[in-house]
Amino acid sequence: MSLYFQKMKSFYKSLVIGLVLSFPFFTAGAQSTQKPNIIFFLADDLGRHQIGAYGSTFYETPHIDELAKNGLKFTNGYSASPVCSPTRASIMTGKYPARLHLTDYIPGRSSKNSKLITPDWKKELPLGEITIAEVLKDAGYATGHFGKWHLNKDKKYKLGRPGDPGSQGFDDVLTTHKPGAGPKSKFDEDWHHVQEITERSVAFIKKNKDQPFFCYVTHNSIHDPEIEKKSLIEKYAKKPELKKLKTNNPKQAAMLETLDRNIGTILNTLEELELENNTLVVFNSDNGQKGSKEGKPLRGSKGDLYEAGIRMPLIIRWPGVVKPGTESSQLVISNDFFLTFSDLAGGISKEKDIDGVSLLPVLRDSGAKLTRESLCWHYPHYHGLGIAPSGAIRKGSYKLIEWFEKSAYGEDGAYELYDLMSDPGESRNLSASMKDKTAELKNELEAWRDRVGAQMMPKRK
């Protein structure tokens, strides 16, 4: 890391972290006063509808389902982007990808013959940004990153390289790739490094069992290429539910079973070490399933702003604080983890540009209300799956999607309005019949873009 970035990071860190450790940590009942450990499971390209706890009968996720049974399930949990790198940046910083100008997967793709020009966006998380790992490290946590990073200019990960996890607050680091994109796993038939990531995570937990730790378990699975043991794939190919939904994918199901089993291994480690009662566990995904946009129960997929692209599985377990088997319908987003984890560390001064809110009130009481009124998205890119540049806002039960090409040229169909309460599958566009609501949300979306400094797409001349 250059001397300039070291100085800038030190300066900003003093502003952001400020009051860490200066507030008493919230305790519940007879729980230990030691700060809680944090384990964050982040799956890749996993749709909400693929989890048993969210209604799937085809995919088998018993360990994830058990987390929901013993924790809090969010029914309106969103990723900050329909693709991976921006969502991961939002988790690390608490900021909207539009504010960071990191709005596509790295390195993205160019579009030379498009109607609009893609802005000159950032293809790495700037070293000047303060990450949640840095905040927790300064609060006395051991920090470990195991798996996919995807926040540097490329994936040539190397210990000590600026921009990789080690320069962003993580002490113990294993970076992995999808099959064929980097070094193979040390284990046979571990194409997506699931077993290797689990082994390192377990070792990290055992090593740091006597101090608070942040274990960031960020899998490459179930991202393509879809590779898994033949016997597991055949198991799902024979299931009678296969043909009920186009989103039922035997290869992804086999990969998900392996992922779920390894999550169980880490959860069992907590129990064996008697750490379960003082560990907050999060399960989440970075964006929706790659595949069919069938719309049952949600419409869309990875890469677009329909619900299945951004409404994610989000489960949090925290014994003694979170009431088992509860749900929350509050609007939450991946930006929120930053302040939530910061609060767990003992309190933090809020930097002015943090876009998330702390979820602690909802964790303590699933019926609690958050202060936010809306969530927004900004995707000024042409995705390889053929998805056009777009933006969106959700306020209450209403959601507006703007298609940038059409709005830039004043074409019909630039806006789609849905009432997600009555139409979660986004099948009835209300923009023509509810013009006042469409105009209201359009204005709010534009005002939000101005506030965060979102990069717009000029017309191609």
CATH topology of the largest domain: Alkaline Phosphatase, subunit A
CATH architecture of the largest domain: 3-Layer(aba) Sandwich
The CATH class of the largest domain: Alpha Beta
Q: How many helical elements?
A: 13
User: From N to C, what is the helix and strand string?
Assistant: HEHEEHHHEEHEHHEHEEEHHEEEHEH
Count the beta strands: 14
CATH superfamily of the largest domain: Alkaline Phosphatase, subunit A
Hey, roughly how much beta strand do the residues contain?
5-15%
Structural commentary:
There is one protein chain. By secondary structure, the protein is of the alpha/beta class. The protein has two domains: 34-369, Alkaline Phosphatase, subunit A (3-Layer(aba) Sandwich); 376-452, Arylsulfatase, C-terminal domain (2-Layer Sandwich), CATH 3.30.1120.10. Helix content is 28%, strand content 15%. It contains 13 helices and 14 strands. It has helices spanning 3-17, 62-69, 84-93, 97-100, 132-138, 194-207, 230-237, 250-272, 307-310, 336-344, 360-364, 404-408, 435-452; strands spanning 37-43, 72-74, 77-78, 142-147, 172-175, 213-218, 279-285, 314-317, 326-328, 332-333, 374-379, 390-395, 398-403, 415-419. Strands 5-4-6-1-7-8-2-9 form an eight-stranded mixed sheet, sandwiched between helices. A four-stranded antiparallel sheet has the order 11-12-13-14. A two-stranded parallel sheet has the order 3-10. Strand 12 and strand 13 (398-403) form a beta hairpin. Helix 7 packs across helix 8 (250-272). The chain is globular, with a radius of gyration of 21 Å. The protein starts with a helix and ends in a 9-residue tail after the last helix.
